[in-house]
Amino acid sequence: MGAVTTALIAIAAVALGWCTIEIACKPCLEKGREAIDRNLNPDYDPDDDADTTAPLNPDYAEAAAASSTVVKAV
């Protein structure tokens, strides 16, 4: 009877550990599962997600203004 009790306690510990990890890492696990689902979906096209009209550097005006400043090196 001791072996059965030990086995039940071990199974309960594994189940509680699994639940703890699922709760603690929920956002990360959901993103990973979504990525796996997309990867295994034969109808998924990664090009459909990309916004092809968006500029590659959206802060170009700010970057150009910042790069044209004069710096005096001594």
Give the overall pLDDT as a whole number: 81
Q: What's the gyration radius in Å?
A: 26 Å
Helix proportion of residues, in percent?
55-70%
Distance between the termini: 84 Å
Number of strands: 0
Main β sheet profile:
none
Amount of beta strand: under 5%
Shape summary: elongated
Assembly context of the chains:
single chain
Unreliable runs: none
Structural classification: mainly alpha
Order of helices and strands: HHH
Number of discrete helical segments = 3
InterPro entries: OEP7-like
Organism: Salvia divinorum
Protein name: Outer envelope membrane protein 7-like
Signal peptide: 1-17
List the keywords.
OEP7-like; mainly alpha
Question: Could you give a quick summary of the protein structure above?
Answer:
With 74 residues, this protein is mainly α. The chain has 3 helices and no strands.
Commentary on this structure:
The structure is a single chain. The longest helix has 23 residues, at 2-24. This protein has three helices and no strands. The protein is an all-alpha fold. It is elongated, with a radius of gyration of 26 Å. Residues 37-56 are annotated as: Disordered. InterPro entries: OEP7-like. Residues 1-17 form the signal peptide. Keywords: Signal.
